[in-house]
Specification:
Layout lengths: L1 E3 L5 H11 L3 H9 L5 H8 L15 H13 L4 E5 L3 H16 L5 E3 L3 H4 L5 H8 L6 E5 L6 H9 L3 E5 L13 E3 L1 H4 L5 H4 L3 H18 L3 H5 L6 H10 L6 H16 L3 H10 L9 H18 L3 H8 L3 H36 L6 E4 L8 H12 L3 E7 L2 E7 L6 H6 L7 E4 L3 E7 L3 H16 L7 E3 L2 E3 L6 H8 L13 E7 L5 E3 L3 E7 L6 E6 L12 E13 L2 E13 L9
């Protein structure tokens, strides 16, 4: 792994640190994040809700609020269909919650992955219409490219609103009201271009509440939109959208709301996921604890269960459902581990030299292959698509590495695919099985052309070099102002140069190890952990460079700084003493 450190000019660091009254370390992080102006840097450190833009600047939003207001005024029947991932589930829960506050009784439906496939499919629509034909149909986190399906609903006399953030492969929808900044791509839309669907739904309900407050609707004045930011944070963090601009504001405040766990369903889910009350909630808690459990029902059963959990006020139902989602997640983990092992064997035996990897097996569950694709991509540092069996189709998901756009590459394979879509870093794909080998070749060629034939070498970007003496509570407090970390605001990796381990690292659970660093005067120790690195123990007594992340460790009601080791290397003789 190649370590890269490209520091800003020292005079810039010094000037920004002096102006803001922060440490040079925080000033370097701000400059690296592109905040060279003091005002912009200060706004980044304090992302205020007051900075959210007028929702009606978003194209078609006023048309959508007008249609929703008519439905509310006339007591019309509304159906909400949201996708089965965390973004779709949180979007559905948010819109249904607000509509209920205004007296509506919307039905909600979530596509069943194995029966309905992805998105706004005809089978999902037909299932949604079984209890009766609604007046208004709202599709969330899907529908941008569903021309035939939206036209079908229109032919039945059903009005349609689509709120989605997936990129459009064709012209914008001719029927219905579409809210999607990617489909319209208007100047000035940068502030919300990277909102996921739940962020767009928040803009929609913000506009709706704003208009109804102007009409002096009593319930509109009672609604505190801040109370719904927990749902926005769930979808925003889990969907891996860039945590910049409005996403940063929504995620920062939403994590605080989520931490309060006012919803019985989310509180129960946090309990089974091991998220401790009282601790600061981090994006990693959504990514690795809450999100997978919400997703598990959609992968193995029916994601409507997750929506019901979030919406419920019944404590017993919430406890039982949270445990059920936890069981689904354990089952998902077992299936995923088995498929990952098989997938890695395929790579080693058949595709070790391919710049882009396409893997398939008849027995692989389509509901977990996206997670497997992510694991394979990280291990081999190459774009990977993992497909499972679905009758005559091979269906699954792909993940990419920085700098390689899967949407562009799949565009060159479109004639071989029956459906595809997503983001540059993550896509969903389906194709006839007879096209599989041609797709493998075309995909690899597309990646090779994109990279110019160069192998993508893993890189580790060092945010700043520290001395052990720099790692104090004050630095941790400053880093907290950079939260939340995520896409486009990555957790900083710090370099420590020339440190020497005096004690042999302690291996635990066969995979991980703990280590101790001492300052030169021996008066202070720092403790660290290395996850899944037990097969690569650093030597004792020799100068080392360490790449670490800084976290808080909570143990026995005590809070202490912990180093999380990302990589290590032996110090080069020319690098001199620790800095």
């Amino acid at each position: 792994m190649r370590w890269i450190h490209q520091p800003p000019p020292p005079e810039q660091i010094s000037a920004l640190a002096s102006t803001l009254g922060v440490s040079p370390v925080l000033a370097e992080l701000l400059l690296r994040a592109g905040h060279s102006e003091a005002d912009a840097a200060a706004a980044f450190l304090k992302p205020a809700l007051a900075r959210l833009a007028d929702p009606f600047l978003l194209k078609n939003l006023q048309l959508a609020t007008a249609r929703l207001r008519r439905a509310l005024a006339q007591g019309e029947q509304i159906v909400v269909l949201g996708d089965y991932d965390v973004d779709g589930v949180s979007s559905t829960a948010l819109l249904v919650s607000i509509l209920r506050r205004f007296g509506a009784k919307p039905r909600f439906v979530v596509p069943r992955r194995m029966e309905d496939g992805y998105g706004l499919s005809r089978s999902a629509i037909d299932r949604a219409l079984e209890p009766g034909r609604p007046d208004l149909f709202v599709a969330l986190d899907c529908g941008t490219n569903s021309h035939e399906e939206v036209a079908y609903l229109g032919s039945l006399g059903v009005d349609v609103i689509v709120v989605d953030h997936h990129r459009s492969k064709e012209k914008a929808l001719e029927h219905g009201i579409l809210i999607n900044p990617h489909a319209h791509d208007l100047p000035g839309d940068d502030a919300w271009r990277h909102l996921c669907t739940v962020g767009l739904v928040f803009k929609l309900v913000h506009g709706l509440v704003k208009e109804l407050r102007q009409e002096n609707h009593p319930e509109a004045h009672a609604i505190k939109l801040r109370d719904y930011l927990d749902l926005v944070a769930l979808g925003t963090v889990a969907d891996l959208v860039p945590l910049q601009f409005e996403n940063r504001i929504l995620a920062r405040h939403g994590l605080r709301t989520l931490q309060e766990a006012a919803r019985p369903g989310l509180r129960a889910l946090m309990d089974v996921a091991g998220v401790r009350p009282g601790q600061d909630l981090m994006p990693v808690d959504i990514s690795f604890r809450l999100g997978p459990r919400i997703n598990a029902s959609g992968r193995l059963a029916d994601a409507a269960l997750s929506v019901e959990l979030i919406l419920s006020d019944d404590a017993r139902f919430c406890r039982e459902t949270a445990r059920q989602l936890d069981d689904f997640n354990r089952e998902r983990q077992d299936i995923e581990r088995a498929i990952t092992d098989e997938a890695e064997r395929q790579v080693e035996q058949q595709f070790a030299d391919q710049p882009g990897i396409v893997l398939y097996a008849e027995g692989w569950h389509p509901g977990v292959v996206g997670i497997v694709a992510g694991r394979v991509t990280r291990k081999y540092h190459r774009p990977c698509i993992v497909l499972g069996n679905e009758v005559t189709q091979a269906k699954g998901s792909g993940r990419s590495v920085d700098g390689i756009n899967l949407v562009e590459i799949l565009g060159g394979c479109a004639d071989l695919l029956s459906s595809w879509g997503g983001h540059p870093m993550a896509v969903g794909v389906a194709l006839p099985k007879e096209n599989l080998e041609k797709f493998r070749v075309r995909f690899a060629e597309g990646v090779r052309a994109w990279t110019g034939g160069r192998a993508a070498e893993p890189e580790l970007r060092i945010a700043a070099w520290l001395r052990l003496a720099d790692i104090q509570d004050r630095l941790m407090d400053e880093l907290a102002q950079m939260h939340p970390f995520g896409q486009a605001n990555p957790e900083p990796v710090f370099g420590l140069r020339g440190v020497v381990l005096r004690q042999r690292p302690e291996v635990f659970k066969g995979q991980h190890f703990r280590f101790v660093l001492e300052q030169a005067d021996g008066r202070r120790r720092l403790y660290g952990v290395a996850w899944k690195m037990a097969e690569r123990l650093p030597p004792v007594g020799r100068p080392l460079d360490l790449a670490v992340e800084l976290t808080w460790n909570f143990f026995n009601d005590r809070k202490s700084i912990q180093l999380e080791l990302i990589d290590w290397r032996e110090s080069a003789p020319s690098e001199g003493p620790p800095v």
